[in-house]
Every structure is written in C-alpha cells, then in structure tokens.
Amino acid sequence: MSGAIERAFVFPGQGTVGAEITGAARDAVLDYVGDTAVPYQLSVFAGSVDLLYRLREAGIEPDVVAGHSLGEYAAAHATGGLGLADGVRLVAERDRLMNEASRANPGGMVALIGADPSEVATATEEASGIVVAANFNTPRQTVVSGQLDALERVTGRVRGRKVPLEVSGAFHSPLMEGAALEMDELLRGVELEEPEIPMVGATDGALLTTAEGMREALRKQMLSPVRWVAVVERLLDLGVREFFEAGEDGTLTRMLREFKRKDVEGRTAREALS
C-alpha cells in the first residue's frame, strides 16, 4: 500500500438507482437469490461491483476506496478484503433486516440543503422523540433521520430547503438497533482478507488498512452517522485528485462539486468508460 495516492473509487449507498448487472456480479447474485426478486440493496451493490470490474478491465485502478453507507460493502470488496459471495449474502441480509426494522419502527429521512451542519446537530439533540443527524454529506447538505413527528420538529427549527428522501425507513438512527445487532453477528462470522488497497471509513474518515479495521467499520455503520465530509476531506488530504463513482446516477459526483475544489475531477464510471 505504498506509493502515491491520487485516484479514488467511491461507491454510493441507498437512494441511488440499481443498475443492470452483468458478468461475475450477476452470476453471484443469481447464485444467491435464485428465481426470487433481487433485493434493492443487493441490486445497488451488484451494480457498483459490475462497474468496478468494468473500470478495472479498462485499466483504471484505484489507489484508495470509500463507500457511502451501503456503498462501504462494495468498497470493502474493491480492497480485496471482502469476497463477492460473502458481500452478496451480507447485503441481501442487510436489506432484509433494515426493511423488517423499518416496518417495526416506522420513520423517515429528510435532507436539509443550505442548513448549517452544527445547527442541525444541535436541533436533533434538543428535539423530543427519536431523531438524529444521520448523513453529513457536504458542507451544505445534512440529512436527519428518525420518527416522523420528531423529524417535523427538527426541520421546522432549522433554515434551508427540506427534501424528504425516498427511503423505506429511518436509517442510521436508533430505530435500526435491532437490525444492527443481527448484522453485527453476521459480520462476526465472515472471514475477511487483509486489504490490498486502503479504504476510508464512512463513519469517521479513518484510513483502514487491516481486515479487522474494515470489519469494525462495517459493524458500526448501521447506527452511526455517515460523515461523508470527513471522507472527502481525508481523501483530499491523502492526495486524491481523481474521483470515479461506481454508481448509476452520479450522486457522489454531484456532491463533490459542493466542496468547490478546482484541482479535483469527479467522474461517474459511465463517463469514464464512454
């Protein structure tokens, strides 16, 4: 893991579009689900893995990787640490557990555009009910997650544009605790290899260079906020100047523009391969 770090692959999470899946990623998914429908999270994971393979076939290799929430599973696979079959199984179970938790503990998520992140965090800490600052996506976009009435109280207190997210539940909030406990047990039973390239963890921007470091990041992620601002800042500090997004709709590429770095280029995998 020596040498210059200039190119990052980043992998989006929920909210992105599941892609058409081909090749080895498709085979691994079909081996697991058989004739049943592909769970949404699994379609996103497999689509990202498929784009990862296509980028590598085109001779584009990452020096470091990172993933936004669900995207950390594709990032862990990209390091060489998480096997494809294990990744498919874990993500399919993650989808099931989070959907079950969402039905048992209904909630939602709202993006606040233009609001001060510290103001949002304070509003969630002072609000009654279950609500947290769940995603610190950019310097001017923070997502809150929790019970619907608590979300209304928080969003009514802070400035900025409010955009409800089309997700099935209150992810990265205490409402996912039951799912997180079961996911933790699944992760304990998976054998991870030592990563061939480093990964930046989404919960704190830490540089992960060991199998156990990645396992711990995946264990923490379901209840912890996604600190994507810290991730991008760490990647920039490492020397990254090229970002390739292995996702379908360019969410992370658009967010990168809000960091206003003229010396940094962000492209989707589709753009790079066209």
Give your account of this protein's structure.
The chain is α/β, with parallel strands linked by helices and 274 residues long. The protein folds into two domains: 7-103 and 174-273, 3-Layer(aba) Sandwich (Malonyl-Coenzyme A Acyl Carrier Protein, domain 2); 107-164, Alpha-Beta Plaits, CATH 3.30.70.250. Helix content is 45%, strand content 16%. It has eleven helices and ten strands. It has a six-stranded mixed sheet with strand order 8-7-2-1-9-10, sandwiched between helices. It has a four-stranded antiparallel sheet with strand order 4-5-3-6. Helix 1 packs across helix 4, helix 2 (40-57) runs parallel beside helix 3 (71-78) and helix 4 runs antiparallel to helix 7 (177-188). The longest helix has 21 residues, at 84-104. It is globular, with a radius of gyration of 18 Å. 49% of the residues are buried. The mean pLDDT is 95.
